[in-house]
Amino acid sequence: MVFSLLLHQVALKPIERIKLMLARTQLVSNKIADDEEHPLQAQIEMKVRLELKHDKDFRRALGRSRLSDVTRQDMVEFHLHKFRKQMRYVNANSTFYRDRFKALGLRPEDIVTYEDLLKVPVTEPSDLAEDPYGFLCVSQTEVMRAFTTTGTSGQRKRLFYTQRDVLNIVDSIASAIRNVGMTGNDTLHIMFPAVSAWDPSLMLDSACKVAGLRSKVCSDIDVEKQLQAMRDSQAKVIIGLTSFIYRITVLARDKHDLRAFGVKAIICSSEPLSEAVRHEIEAAWGCKALTQYGMTEMGLATAIECFAQDGIHLDEGNYLCECIDPATGKHQPDRVEGELIWTSLNMQGSPLLRYRSYDLSCYISPPCGCGYTTVGKMGKPKGRINGETKIGLGDKIWPSMFDEAVLGVSGVLGYQVIIDKAGFRDHLTFNVEYHGDASGVPAAIKDKLMALDEIKIGLDSDLIDPLVVEILPERKDFVLKQKTIVDNRPLFDKK
Ligand SMILES: [Zn+2]
């Protein structure tokens, strides 16, 4: 039933209402008071306490049977215990991991310290794409939902969720939304353009219904219709696709006083949030714009930024996030950039251990300025390892690196960089979609771009042509996830 709720908009029959009420009782996020200052941390700590209550192995590992306050060290022990437990589970149920552990002679008891995690080889997205059933740990009758994702790498991956997995996802989404100030009296306005193959609106809307939170979906690209929908539902928290929220904001702010809506927070989802875009959204709405990070393979809601805006809090009750140096595989120190590696600690359907994200970011230990003391954060994603290319003298560039410069010019709606080779020089054309009077805009964008080291070095060494900025008229439709960098250089060595 929860499964059907997460797939369809259904009118509930009385028996289904009862089932929904029962499902709600299993949610940890619903046991957290509306006035709790740190809902996500409270939910994670509750999971640690429940584990202690129900699992003697954890009590033995911790050397205690009660916890008054959960400390950071308790969290680390919780993660190691859950990792060992998940190793046991996949060893018994997943052919992929059983074969792997057997070949290496690896046992759960071998994982005692945080560094011991490095003994377990990373799982590649290609492993999952090649043999999704090798990861399936339950019978088909226990699978409540199967989901196929292509992701940015283009490989099709199939994932399976049980009812408990779905409830954990609902819990994770609910606590993330509560963490930005949403209460039982508020309405969440969900705005993703209805042009994607898979619409996150339905998932979020259904998750809210299961969690007992009010929500309203509006996918219209028409600015007036979006604003009217917000007025009608008196939305107090907004979640949506970053570029879509940005576009609606730029087009609406001249005609409407967006601050009058009294929105408490805006969650910019599914795409990176540059500081330039954040600034524009915050100035227009008069509230914080926060970023969120999710991975389908981990169950979507994995991290939410807090009001301190210095990193994105991880749902460490459900996931373990490590940051490694992709060249050596070793753990990176706090705040040092590397690749994020994820483990789903509670997943039953397709659990993944040390799964490569190819996302560049960092790990940040608590405490946090928002008052969190036990839950860690990831830094803002810096791009993808395989999304990089090089220009000029071999300086790396990646899809989000021009955001601050180009989107920092007021009125810019979006852009694309085209790289060609003109003789020995790289030729960069920035096609910029603009709203309003564009006089002076190309020069302003060029100034900002030329302040970037990667561009400056290339120009100084005569390996990049003078930059070209073309202004394109405002589009009438919305283009989803346009490729930011189009590299047309033939035989270009991307390594
Ligand atoms: Zn925080």
Would you write up a description of this structure?
The chain is globular. 33% of the residues lie in helices and 21% in strands. Helix 5 crosses helix 6, helix 8 crosses helix 9 (200-211) and helix 11 packs across helix 12. Strand 16 and strand 17 (395-397) form a beta hairpin. The strands form five sheets. It has a nine-stranded mixed β-sheet with strand order 4-3-5-6-7-8-9-14-13, sandwiched between helices. The protein has a four-stranded antiparallel β-sheet with strand order 10-11-12-15. It is built from 15 helices and 21 strands. It has helices spanning 2-5, 14-25, 39-54, 56-62, 72-93, 95-104, 125-130, 163-179, 200-211, 223-233, 242-252, 275-285, 403-407, 441-450, 453-460; strands spanning 145-149, 157-161, 187-191, 214-217, 237-241, 265-269, 288-293, 303-305, 312-314, 319-324, 338-344, 355-361, 363-364, 377-378, 383-384, 389-391, 395-397, 412-422, 425-434, 468-472, 485-487. It is an alpha/beta fold and 495 residues long. It has two domains: 2-384, ANL, N-terminal domain (Rossmann fold); 388-487, ANL, C-terminal domain (GMP Synthetase, Chain A, domain 3, 2-Layer Sandwich). It binds zinc ion. Zinc ion is lined by residues 306, 308, 313, 368, 370, 372. Zinc ion binds next to loops.
